[in-house]
Amino acid sequence: MTRALERRVEALRRRVTVRSWEYRQRHHARGAWFRLRRALADARAAFEIPPEEADRLIAEGHKVEPVGEAFEPRKVILVVPADRMAGVRGARPVPLRLGADVLQATHLALTPF
User: Fold this and answer.
1) Contacts of 94 (CB under 8 A, 6+ apart)
2) What's the distance, CA 8 to chain centroid?
3) 111: closest CA among 71, 68, 65, 70?
4) For the chain, what is the radius of gyration of the CA atoms?
5) Which candidate among 14, 68, 87, 88 keeps its CA 20 to 30 Å from the CA of 21?
6) In angstroms, rounded to a whole number, what is the distance separating the alpha carbons of residues 39 and 61?
7) Contact partners, residue 8, CB within 8 Å, separation at least 6
8) Cα separation of 71 and 100, whole Å?
9) What's the angle, vertex CA 22, arms to CA 18 and CA 27, rounded to 5?
């Protein structure tokens, strides 16, 4: 083999190794990160809410995203219309991205588009 071909083969092996590691990590999480990103992508805004308000919204029948169960500590992620969010006491807006605010919130309300 020529030197250039050896370098190309080695670069390909490195990419395959990294890609296989990424897929392995994704499967260990059972797709939780992808599902959380999908839930955030479908939302217009995100709010951290008090646990009492989350319980009240669940009792009203608002949809709970099952992806919250995949995280530790467990997250309650609700989908709540924007007009209903106006009446939620103690709601604090958080940036709509995979950042510290979203990951630290145990009770999260997402408003859909």
Assistant:
1) 46, 47, 48, 101, 102, 105, 108
2) 36
3) 65
4) 20
5) 68
6) 18
7) none
8) 14
9) 150
Answer whether 82's CB lies under 8 Å from 45's CB.
Answer: yes
User: pTM here?
Assistant: 0.72
Give the Cα separation of 31 and 48 in Å (integer). 23
Q: What is the pLDDT of residues 5-46, one digit of tens each?
A: 999 999 999 999 988 887 776 666 677 888 899 999 999 999
DSSP percent split of the chain into helix, strand, coil, nearest 5? 50, 20, 30
CB of 74 within 8 A of CB of 106? Answer: yes
Q: Which residue, chain included where needed, has tokens 């308000």? A: 53
Domain borders along the chain are 1-30, 31-112
